[in-house]
Records
---
Amino acid sequence: MNKYIAWLPAFIILATAIYKPVKEATETKLVSKDISFSVYKSSSYTSVAYNNTSAEVTIIIEKVDTKGQHTIVWDKKLDSKYLSKYPSVENALTQKITINNLDSKKECLVVNYILRYNSKGSELQMHSSTILADNNAGKVDIGI
């Protein structure tokens, strides 16, 4: 019995040394993520065929957790306008937003954007997504 009691202080010191790193590894760390958007026309659209064609942009940001649950944290709809009225890449429409309270170990951000083109009543809808992980810069370019 005395033999086991002699090991007790060593066990307590070892447990104390291990406790802090294990606690930090399992602790939830909430962070903020900055995201910037650039919306621009990717072509000149000077042809007569584009004169009556407009585009509308919808941007949706979702948090996705490790269980696959999606939660919308931000969304915005840009008004429809003619393709020729969108700025070029040099003068792109830009916006920067910050998403707070993101658990960097259990959640990631997914940026979805939907482009809706309308040409004399004919509509085309295109969807694209970008996953923003920790190593990703948080910049999303949307070419119309």
---
Amino acid sequence: MKLRAAYVLLPIVALLHVGCNANVMGKFGGTDKAYPGAERPASEVSIVQCGFSLTLIAIDENKSLSGETAACSYALLPGKHTFRVSIAKRDPSGAGTWRQQGDQVVEYDLVAGKTYSLNAFEDQKTPGVWKIDMVGDKFVTIKEIDLRRSAKAGG
């Protein structure tokens, strides 16, 4: 029984030390510090979390700041930041995930003390048209992307 517990606990312990949420036991409760200098209180930083249907490729062109859907959280200094993302749609049947070819770049002006969720969703009335939004404390900014046009243009 002890050996089986070690097999279960070892991967969990390893996840605490590597990957997108390496700072699981940190000050921000699972949020990685993504700014230079000393750690700041939550009231002085903006928290950005990976939401649904997208992969975060980079923040401000820093590719080490990345993560999959619902699997990352970063503390950033307030102000304008650029997010490079790729839209990912899970097949409801569980057969896999469709990923957009190419990336989308969105820019948001973040406010100190706020937590934001970066999401993508397909327009129900127009399949192929996707929206990327940054939601935080009733604040929503949306960028619309027509993947049908980019597919016709070759990417």
